[in-house]
Amino acid sequence: MATAETRQGDTQILAASVNGGRPLVIGTPAEASFSATVTASDPAGIDYIDAFLYRGPSTAPTGALAAATKPPCTAVSASTTRCSFEFFMGENWLHNGDAGTWRLYADATALDGDHHRKAAASLSVLRASKVTANAAPEPVTKGKPITITGTLSRVSWNDAKYYHYAGQPVRLQFRTPTGHYTTVKTVTTSSTGYLKTTVTATRDGYWRYSFPGNTTTGAANAPGDYVDVR
Questions:
Q1: Same domain, 28 and 103
Q2: Could you tell me how far CA 9 lies from the centroid of its own chain?
Q3: pLDDT in tens, 176-188
Q4: Structural domain tally of the chain?
Q5: Which residues contact 139 (CB under 8 A, 6 or more apart)?
Q6: pLDDT tens per residue across span 187-226
Q7: Does 89 or 140 have the greater pLDDT score?
Q8: For all residues of the chain together, what is the average pLDDT?
């Protein structure tokens, strides 16, 4: 299992990444496949590179995931090797407590027995979310109020269902028919994940709620709801 960083001789892990540096957002039903790469070097040449993912303290992980297959490796030069690892992770394997940061622990061992072992990269594993938006009335008279309602929910990996997500900041955004979305205000979800706010009608356009995500939950945008202002 993972330990603190250790190094013997002149072996060096040069670079590592997981899922291209992007968060991994998992909903239901789903099985996510992703890759990790590790590049290491030693003047004597690299014998092998091994890697796995873990969560929690390195000396006492709360979760671990091995690569699905033996990694293909490429000799970048006589001294440097790059290996690619394939992983599979899905909601039927995960529990809600598994959301958050996972780390890639890499072990590079040279042909002369030297080695370098460390947590070389990290991956944010996030629960998927959904957000809705409805703007009314449609159409509306200029200067009159528009009420935008919606809900925010996120998946529970414990039972593969979505539940309302309370107490979360969500951005109310607007764009004209030819423009880009900009944030008008921030609205906090109720205890039942409900969203409601009012704005003044000034021009035609689309309204939506946008959830930016957090350390355990992925971001989501509602489809824009068009309002004709007359």
A1: yes
A2: 36
A3: 999 999 999 999 9
A4: 2
A5: 227, 228, 229, 230
A6: 999 999 999 999 999 999 999 999 999 999 999 999 999 9
A7: 140
A8: 95
pLDDT in tens, 47-85: 999 999 999 887 788 889 999 989 999 999 999 999 999
Residues facing 38 on adjacent strands: 16, 83
- Residues 204, 213: Cα–Cα separation, whole Å: 28
Residue 1 within a domain:
no
Nearest Cα residue to 207 out of 153, 143, 131, 126: 131
pTM: 0.90
* Local structure of residue 223 (DSSP, 8 states): P
Q: Where are the beta strands (DSSP E) in 70-181?
A: 73-75, 80-90, 100-110, 115-127, 129-131, 134-136, 145-156, 161-164, 169-175
Residues 133 and 120 in one domain: no
Domain hosting 52: range is: 6-127
- List, in sequence order, every residue forming a beta bridge with 171; answer none if it has no partner: 186, 210
Which of 111, 127, 143 is where one domain is finished?
127
- Residue 64 tokens read as 């671990």
Torsion angle of C-alpha atoms 93, 95, 96, 101, degrees rounded to 10 = -70
Residues 133, 46 within the same domain: no
